[in-house]
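Researcher: Here's the sequence for the chain we discussed earlier.
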Amino acid sequence: MLRLRAMVASGAATAALVMAAGAVPAHGASGSVSSAPDGRYQKEMVHALAASLGISDEAAVRRLDSQAHQQSVLGSLHTPGADPRGAYFDHAGRLTVNVADAQAAHRVEAAGLKARISRYAADELDRVKAALDRAAAQGVPSGVRGWGVDPASDKVVVQVSGAVTAADQAFLAKAESYGSAVAVRSSDGKAVSTAGTIYPGSRMDYGNHYCSVGFGARDSSGRQVLVTAGHCVESLPDLYFDGTHFAKGTTTRFHHGRDSIDMGLASVDAGTTIAPQIGTWGNGADVAVEGSRRAPAGSDICKSGATSHWTCGSITSYNYSVTYTDPGQPATLVTNVGLSDVCDLGGDSGGPWVSGDQGQGMTSGGQTDNQCDGVYGQGVSYFEPLDDALQYYGLSLNTA
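Model: Thanks. This is the structure I predict for it:
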């Protein structure tokens, strides 16, 4: 059987995985769980719970029984990819477990619990939270009420008070550098955009797919644009960051089934800025971009993306041609990409590449057998050179 030569690194594979998991029967706790015998729970506690929920004492006991039963099932699970730290009760009282993949979802649901394929592993969110702890230790953010991992939203949630001071901005900028892994909310739970700034490397959604935010730039009229991989904006879609519209695809040189160059643009909404710093997903400070001078072959290079996050390696060559075989689409010849041993995965497309302080390109694609296992995991990947896109479209790069 022929192996696919390359994949377009969009979110298609991820979306397909989620749909497959969605087909798994979603069984909850067994309906045969009976009420606890009299005296099992403290009467005052049962009555207080019932009053707070507006239900009878008997219903409160059944609720406690159900939760205890589901927690017991969770405690007996030893399924790889299903971390108890990612478990939470939903509004219907069903214990939901965040899992890594469809196989783990099958096992969790076979045990009678609900499973959800999550974007972030518990370890990842814990690392982000720990990084925010360290940032706060450098200067306590007085306008920030608190922060912590929220399994239900699959994010680290930062809560701010009504008045965020200038002293809080460094902390919030650090929080926002983790892209969609962090949500900033007001005390009443509403989403807050503190500066309208989106960091390159963050996840951007469109339809049932996602790519990664690339570089910000301005056209000859001073209008702000996003420079991205052309296949991310092939259909000129609306683009969303953390559920909020921030840009719309306007032009692309990528077309499935036709000889293509993988560059494209999106217009950025008023009030939103693409930061001139690249988020590193917790691997040190953000990287300030000072220009777009092309690094020669053999140079060290790193990329930021929504799936494999921050990975590094070296440039192999330029002016490379590759055939992309995206499932369900005709083969597409893409020319003039850079070749690298940096590891990338589906969903990283459009994300920024940087060498030193110079922007180098946007993720275009990679081999289907890439297995990223850390910052220096090896792979075969392709990037659209940034300087080519800036020159072709007549743009000025946003720099720090």
